[in-house]
Amino acid sequence: PPRGxxxxxxxxxxxxxxTASELILKSSRTMxxxxxxxxxxxxxxxxxxxxxxxxxxxxxxxxxxEKCGATLTDNSxxxxxxxxxxxxxxxxxxxxxxxxxxxSSSVLITFQSxxxxxLSDFLSIFAYPPTNSTLVARYSGNELPYQVVHEGxxxxxxxxxxLGRDKGFEINYSIVDGIAPRFVSDMNDxxxxxxxxxxxxxxxxxxxxxxxxxxxxxxxxxxxxQSKFTLEGKNLSLKSVxxxxxxxxxxxxxxxxxxxxxxxLLTVYVPPLIAKHPMAIHLESIFNKSNGTxxxxxxxxxxxxxxxRVVFRCSVYxxxxxxxxxxxxxxxxxxxxxxxxxxLVIEPxxxxxxxxxxxxxxxxxxxxxxxxxxLTIGLTA
Length: 381
Hints:
This protein has about 375 residues and is an all-beta fold. Helix content is about 0%, strand content about 50%. The chain has one helix and 34 strands. Strands 18, 21, 22, 25, 26, 28 and 31 form a seven-stranded mixed beta sheet that branches. Strands 27, 29, 30, 32, 33 and 34 form a six-stranded mixed beta sheet that branches.
């Protein structure tokens, strides 16, 4: 580079025509200064200097800080923090814009190294333009971040505070034709009724079109039962759904840029079923001798007539758990139970309790009623 002479008192330069270019000045120590800084030097010494071409951010020592921020339109390149691999300065604020030239392009960012003062100095990545844009990621500390893939242009912003420093970061970026898979809407938990057909959507898009794989409870669906599941495009079709089809489903989409996935819960509702109907009960004497009646359905301590304990039981099943009501001669009684194994207790019994009893089960998707069971009371000597 060209050399010349500068007087540290006057700032007068000879031997080179320059304005505020950066200068390295040599005496008992060497410093990298701008011409303006050189003219303010206090020592009454003469210095030898030369212009440092392309350096706009001088730092004391034999180095020049890399330009802080840029707009990048090349298909690939490297981004360094200022002073990378030595130390960046305090109170930095640098921005880089990575701008693809076509709409159907994505930006890939790969971190080669990353080291900043944790929770103090940050690299933030936004969708471009940065005004009111979405935050894509924010990093601080010494952990190497994962690759970032983003559809469309990006804005990177680095800030440091007035305290500590670190060596900074090196980032490789590339602009590629294509768009990573992304979901255009959420896959919400789904409720279906047993024996219905259901189509589970996977609302994902990308360029090129992503490959879609479905999983149930962690297993690929085609490894479970191929005849049960059918792919219709990206969507999963289930015919005549059964309760065992309930579970956690996942749709995973992948193309050469990236992959993404969403999970949701499929719940199968089952209308109430009567698993065990109530049994008829006949009381025929002043004492309850049970006459072989199943003790599960008739308690039989010897008691005087009119004080016997009668128990009807009805077992029901359904999803969600049914509420069970009891009827006498077709009319609802003032009893209801939320148990799946429900009992109707009549104690003490009397002649007025004679009649036909049935249990009625109800949930949000249906109802069922048991066969009637008669209670007869006959007085004998």
